[in-house]
Write a structure and sequence with these properties.
Layout: H1 2-31, E1 34-37, E2 39-41, H2 43-48, H3 53-56, H4 83-93, E3 95-97, H5 100-108, E4 123-126, E5 131-136, E6 142-144, H6 176-189, H7 194-209, E7 220-222, H8 234-239, E8 240-245, E9 253-257, H9 266-271, H10 277-286, H11 296-299, E10 303-308, E11 313-315, E12 321-323, H12 331-337, E13 339-349, E14 362-364, H13 366-377, H14 380-387, H15 414-421, E15 431-434, H16 439-453, E16 465-466, H17 472-513
Parallel strand pairs: 7-14, 9-13
Antiparallel strand pairs: 1-15, 1-16, 2-3, 4-15, 5-6, 5-10, 8-13, 9-14, 10-13, 11-12
Length: about 525
């Protein structure tokens, strides 16, 4: 009976551990997806080739031979170490471009093998919508949400204008603008802060891939959509405490995201218009002990103005368009042409939340993304450019004949202009996130992608980033160790049970045969004297 109870307890423990592991897998896979970006870095190939030596180990391997690591150089002379060149080549060769148009068709096909392994959140498409946000500060002035708070120390009232303020010779935003916005976002967040950490990694990855995808306001990001058209997924809602108001329910609703301490970095407070330039300067100069506080009621219902990229271009009346930069003289006009957003709620990461992955101070819904895509498609500047594919609507010149002020050729093309105007095709997402509910399903999805790549040339093969695979080797070892320990417990219990059963059976036999002995054998020391005959 003791053995049976022990086995039952071990099986119950094993079942509980397995259920816990399943939940951990679900939580992990909800946070870390298989991500396919338009331009990506093949981290596995780069690490295998010895790139990123600073992350993977020592980069100084030039003085060692390729076999065994023993020194084969003449140590009486100075030799060149080419390991830095090899690492640079490894990084360059690891930057890949993905054809997401064809891959999206594969994912959307209901007969694709990959669909049976998709998790609760399925597949989420992200698009490089191009917009900026204006906020009203306590002084009643308008400020760009990408304004550089650090520039205030140099006496600039509006700061920089981030992704919207930089322009090329012909008025179109330059490619460098996105990178500047990303760097400003990382700086405003500060070291060790939730907002800053995300911005910093995003800037690093953008620099590595040469991408200028940070064209949207740096403090804004899209929330994970839910099933059946829900604006926000249940996973996100369960990972955050709703402090006041409600989660977004329509396109113009946004949610303000606090950190674990109910705080927002001062740089972002300035960018969102919650503190003035003077207040920021005073805080930066004095690092005052008196902190600025707001009630939830003061934040819920607060309005912001979204300025779509296409709304920055004004028809000149002669078939060309001019670009409106973010400046004091243009602020009112930009606000009038923008879309008013409202803070519908204030949220904070729930205690011990596994999926609190919103990395910006403000979150918006996929409905707003869809609105921006449709609004851009119907804008005057986009329709004019699409109607004149050979002519630059910013200059009126034929693309091939354009020259700059110094006589150099202008490299803007039809596609460059449409991108600057914010034109986005729903068939061409900037990235694809594939969600699964378990490690086994993730491995199956990876196998499906490998099968998809089979027979395709390099231009059509998919290179993806599997963040979980970079860290699950140790998790898999832990799971295996737990399994072996449980098996050992069961085996020990069985052995102990067998020994106990043998002892109990032996004692039972001894007790039953004790009364059958001859009276004269009462003092006999022979334990097996069962004949009843005295020796």
């Amino acid at each position: 009976m003791i053995g049976i109870i022990g086995i039952a307890a071990i099986l119950a423990l094993s079942s509980g551990v397995n259920n816990y592991i399943d939940q951990i897998q679900y939580d992990t896979m909800s946070s870390y997806t298989i991500t396919v970006s338009r331009t990506t870095v093949d981290l596995n190939a780069m690490l295998a080739a010895g790139g990123m030596g600073g992350l993977g180990g020592s980069s100084g391997s030039g003085s060692s031979s390729s076999s065994g690591g023993s020194t084969s150089q003449d140590m009486t002379k100075v030799h060149a170490d080419y390991s830095d060149i090899k690492q640079s080549e490894a990084v360059a060769n690891s930057i890949k471009s993905n054809n997401l148009n064809d891959f999206k068709k594969y994912l959307d096909n209901p007969n694709s093998d990959i669909r049976q392994y998709l998790g609760e959140n399925g597949v989420v498409y992200s698009y490089d919508v191009n917009f900026s946000v204006l906020a009203t500060n306590p002084d009643g002035g308008l400020i760009d949400a990408d304004a550089d708070a650090d520039a205030l120390s140099a006496g600039s009232v509006n700061g920089g204008s981030g992704s919207s303020g930089l322009a090329s010779e012909n008025g179109a935003p330059s490619a460098a603008a996105g990178g500047m916005a990303g760097m400003a976002g990382a700086s405003a967040g500060g070291a060790g802060n939730r907002f800053g950490a995300s911005g910093g990694m995003g800037s690093i990855m953008s620099a590595m891939t040469g991408s200028s995808n940070n064209s949207s306001a740096s403090n804004f990001s899209q929330l994970m959509p839910g099933q059946n058209g829900e604006p926000v997924s249940a996973v996100t809602r369960d990972s955050y405490d709703l402090l006041d108001g409600s989660w977004p329910s329509k396109a113009t609703d946004v949610v303000l995201v606090l950190d674990d301490n109910n705080a927002i970095p001062s740089g972002i407070l300035y960018q969102l218009g919650l503190i003035s330039a003077d207040q920021y300067r005073e805080a930066a100069d004095a690092i005052a002990d008196d902190k600025e506080d707001w009630s939830y009621d003061e934040l819920v219902g607060r309005t912001l103005t979204l300025v779509n990229a296409s709304d920055r271009y004004v028809d000149n009346g002669n078939g060309t368009f001019s670009y409106r930069e973010t400046s004091d003289s243009n602020m009112s006009a930009l606000k009038d042409s923008g879309l008013e957003l409202k803070v519908s709620g204030v949220v904070r990461p729930a205690k011990d939340a596994q999926n609190a992955t919103i990395s910006t101070a403000v979150g918006y819904t996929q409905q707003l993304t869809d609105w921006m895509i449709d609004h851009t498609d119907s804008s005057a500047v986009v329709q004019a450019q699409e109607a004149s594919a050979d002519t630059d609507v910013l200059t009126g010149a034929v693309f091939a004949d354009e020259t700059g002020e110094n006589g150099s050729s202008v490299k803007n093309t039809y596609d460059d202009n449409l991108e600057a105007f914010g034109k986005v095709s729903r068939d061409a997402p900037s990235s694809i996130s594939i969600y699964t509910d378990s490690f086994d399903d993730k491995e199956a999805v990876a196998d499906c992608i490998k099968a998809y790549n089979k027979g395709k040339d390099e231009d059509h093969a998919i290179t993806y980033t599997d963040y979980v695979a970079l860290m699950t080797s140790s998790i898999t070892s832990i799971v295996n160790i737990i399994t072996y320990v449980l098996i050992a417990f069961v085996a020990v219990s069985l052995v102990v049970s067998c020994v106990m059963i043998g002892i109990i059976t032996h004692i039972s036999v001894m007790e039953r045969t004790k009364g059958n002995r001859h009276p004269a054998c009462a003092g006999c020391l022979e334990a097996q004297c069962l004949t009843g005959v005295q020796r």
